[in-house]
Amino acid sequence: MHSLVQELENTTIADGVPETQLDGAAATEAGPAATTGEVVKKKNKKKKAAAAAPVNGEAEPEKEEKEETSKDANAEDDDDEDDDEEEAVASGTATAGAKKKKKKKTNKKKKKIQTEPPTIPLSVLFPSKIYPEGELCEYKDDNLWRTTDEEKRAVERQNSDQYNDVRRASEVHRQVRQYARRNIKPGMTMTEICEMIENGTRTLVEANGFESGIAFPTGCSLNHCAAHYTPNAGDKIVLQYGDVCKIDFGVHVNGRIIDSAFTLTFDPVYDNLLAAVKDATNTGIREAGIDVRLGDIGAAIQEVMESYEVEIGGKTYQVKPIRNLTGHSIDLYKIHGTKAVPIVNNGDPTKMEEGEYFAIETFGSTGRGIVRYDMETSHYARAYDIPKIPIRLPRAKALFETINREFGTLPFCRRYLDRVGEDKYLLALKSLCDSGHVEGYPPLVDIKGSFTAQYEHTLVLRPTRKEVLSRGDDY
User: Fold this and answer.
1) Catalytic: 58?
2) Which residue in the list 356, 456, 457, 467 is annotated as catalytic?
3) Catalytic: 328?
C-alpha cells in the first residue's frame, strides 16, 4: 500500500487538481494555525525526506515493488490492517502524516517440536500432561455393546490416570524408535545402537527411579538370534548390511510398561520375512479381545505367518512361527504376567479379560521355528517371589541390595550395573542366580544361518474398547 504522502506527490496539476488543494492537505497536518508559507516548507521537507529515506514506515519509492512482494508473503492479518488504514484515509479520519499502525504481536506460543536426537522431555512437549491415545478398536460381535455402555464408560473414567501414564510411556517409545529407525545404520556397534535408544528414553521419560524410566534392557538380537541379546561391556559386534536386527525396548511410567519391538533390515531380500511377521502381529492384535481364547489367537497368527514365503540366496523358505516363543500379559512392574499369548495353535482355552494389558508379539524364522539358549547371558531380573534362602556371600548380598534399590522387579543387564557404579560383580551375580534370587535370561537362537524377525505391540483391553497403545505411523 502506498503512503498518503506518495499519493499526494503523484497527484499533479495536469490531473486537474489545483496545487492549492495540495497545500491545503499539507496544512491539515500542520494544524489550523499554520500559514501558507509554513505549509509549503513542510511540503518541501516531506519531498526531500521521501527521496532520502522511508516515509511513515514505508519503503523508498524505488523499493516499492519489493515491499509489495514481501507483504504478499506475509499473513493475511497485514492485509486486513492495511485495508482499515486505507478506509480511514479515504474518510478523512486519518491525517496525511499519520504513521502506519504497527502490527500487534500476538503472544501465541509455538508448539515445541522434538529435536534430533530427541532431547526435549515429553512433559515439555505436552504441557497439559495429557498424552495421545493409541489406536482405538471396537470389540467384535457380542462385545460391541461395551462401546456405549454408560457403566463401562464410568469405569474407564476412574482409570484415566492409569491410561494417561501408559500413553506417556507409549509416546516416548514412538518418538525414540522413530529417531532410531532413521539413524541406525550399518557400521554402528551394537553398544552405540543401544545407548542411542536408552539415552533418548531416559531423557524423554525423565527417568526417575520407579516413577519413570527404562522398563527392560534394549534387545538388538541379530539374524538367527531371536531375542534377549544386548551387548555386555567390551562387546565389539558391528551391524552389517546383510543383518536382520530385532530392536526390542520398553518404557514404564509408574510401573505401567510399554513393550514394543520392530525389525530393521537394509537388504530388500528380507522384505517378505518382515511382511509375514508384521502381518501376523497385526492379526493377533485384531483377534485379541475380552473373552477371546488365547489358543484361538495363536491359530490365527500361525495361519497368516505360514502363508508367506521368502527367497534368500536362491532358496525359498516358508516363514515359520517360532513355536516356543509367545506374547504375554503385562502386570504392574512385571513385564511377564501370568498369561502367555501363543503364536501357534496350542489349544489353550484361557481367556483374555477386561482391564488386562498384553504384549502381542510374533517371531518368524527361516530355520526350524524353535529356539534354544546360547551365547553369553546379558538379561537378568530379580525373582518376583524372593526365595527364603539366605544370601551368605557378603558381596552377593550387597549386589542384591543394589538390584532391589535400582531395578526392583524390572529386568536389567550388566551395562546397567556398570552404570550405577557396580564392578567386579560377576561372581556375586552368579551366586544370586544359583540361589534363585535373580534369574538370568540367555539369548534365544534358532539354527545358525537362519534369519528371524519380530514385531510387537502393547494393548489394553479397556472396558469399552481395545486400545493399541504403542501403535504409530511406522508400524
Assistant:
1) no
2) 456
3) yes
